[in-house]
């Protein structure tokens, strides 16, 4: 369980860093808190689902039972929980930085 939690946490940190804090993509300020959360949750979910598909593939090729339905559900849940924790952590750190500089984190239109 901790591996999936921290895996989701790491995936979201890397995704948010690549999307918003590097010059790989054009930086666009967040339209709302929801877009920031959506990108984080979606990245954790996609990687978690691909990992479960990988486990299923290995299980079907080797015949070794690696996962059950409940195990897969709990793994995805912990991936998402780690992703949400990462979004909240990054958002908290950004709000502290923007409050200190006097800038705004989101568009206010």
Structure description:
- This protein is mainly alpha-helical.
- The chain has one domain (2-21, 32-99).
- It is built from 3 helices and no strands.
- It is elongated, with a radius of gyration of 17 Å.
- The termini are far apart.
- The model has no long low-confidence stretch (mean pLDDT 83).
Topology summary:
Elements: H1 2-20, H2 33-62, H3 69-101
Helix pairs in contact: 1-2, 1-3, 2-3
Summarize the helix and strand pattern as letters. Answer: HHH
Query: Are there runs of 5+ residues with pLDDT below 50, and where?
Result: none
Structural class estimated from helices and strands: mainly alpha
How far from one another are the termini? Answer: 41 Å
Number of helices: 3
Largest sheet: none
Strand content: under 5%
Number of strands: 0
Q: How many domain modules? A: 1
What's the gyration radius in Å? 17 Å
What value does the average pLDDT take? 83
Proportion in helices:
over 70%
Overall morphology = elongated
What is the gist of this entry?
Helices cover 75% and strands 0% of the residues.
Notable characteristics:
75% helix; elongated; single chain; 3 helices; mainly alpha; 109 residues
């Amino acid at each position: 369980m901790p591996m999936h939690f921290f895996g989701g946490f790491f995936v979201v940190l890397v995704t948010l860093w690549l999307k918003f804090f590097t010059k790989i993509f054009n930086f666009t300020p967040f339209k709302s808190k929801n877009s920031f959360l959506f990108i984080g949750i979606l990245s954790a979910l996609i990687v978690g689902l691909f990992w479960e598909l990988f486990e299923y593939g290995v299980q079907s090729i080797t015949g070794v039972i690696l996962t059950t339905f409940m195990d897969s559900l709990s793994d995805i849940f912990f991936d998402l929980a780690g992703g949400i924790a990462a979004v909240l952590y990054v958002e908290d750190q950004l709000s502290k930085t923007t409050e200190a500089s006097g800038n705004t984190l989101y568009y206010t239109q």
